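Box 3.1 A note on notation
Throughout this textbook, protein chains are presented in two layers. The first layer is the amino acid sequence; the second is a token string describing backbone geometry. Keep the layers aligned when reading.
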Amino acid sequence: MGKQNKSSDATSQGKQHFSHPHILKLIVNPTEIVLTCNACEQPNNTNKPFYGCNTCQYFLHENCFNAPRFLNHASHPSHPLTLHQIPSYSSRSYTCKACDTAGNGFCFSCAACEFDIHLQCASIPSSILVNNHPHQLELHFGSPYEDKNIKYNCDMCNVIMNRDEWLYYCAGCDFGSHLYCAITSPEVGVFPKQHRPIPNSNPNQNPSQNSNSNLNPNASVEMINSVNAAHEQLLAAQIRAQFVARGQEAALDLI
């Protein structure tokens, strides 16, 4: 009786985000005014909450606020992607590898490969159903054809597609679609499983060679335990051998 929910009080006071020096406060019913998210560059077209700093006119969707800092994405399996507030290029803009359009807001990036994707493109589903086609469409990270020189059109807008950009595709019907044709209003949603990248102590080692150890955070402990167990088994075998040898010596003395 008389207790207060500290978590709700903390939420009402606001939260700190790595992208902004000030506390971002929760904005209730943001549809009353037009706000644009600094992360995904999309306006508040729903009644979902926003976090913002009115002094700086800096706003984030709740989903964008909670986007992970590191992301393992199937489109770029060789390296984890890092969330950047500002593109690292001198132009302060990037071209999304997924939808082939420019971006100035947040991006998931691999600096080593100059690989950048929008937040909303990083969280689109791996399969989708659309009104224009009776079957489920699967997400492809580039041309679905073995011959990469084949040109093909989007079956929704009939525009020639860039063979490097992502698309939704039905292999049985040879039906393909731009991401933005299949998802008219993409927003940041559920991201794939992510984890902080583990530094590679050997820079000459292929990242794929240590992928198994990255998947199991207890791999080092298990390896140490297995070595200790093997050492104990060796000591036990040596002790048994000594007992056998001493028994043989005692039998010879009796003879």
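The two ends are 89 Å apart (CA to CA). Confidence is low (pLDDT under 50) at residues 6-10, 195-228, 248-255.
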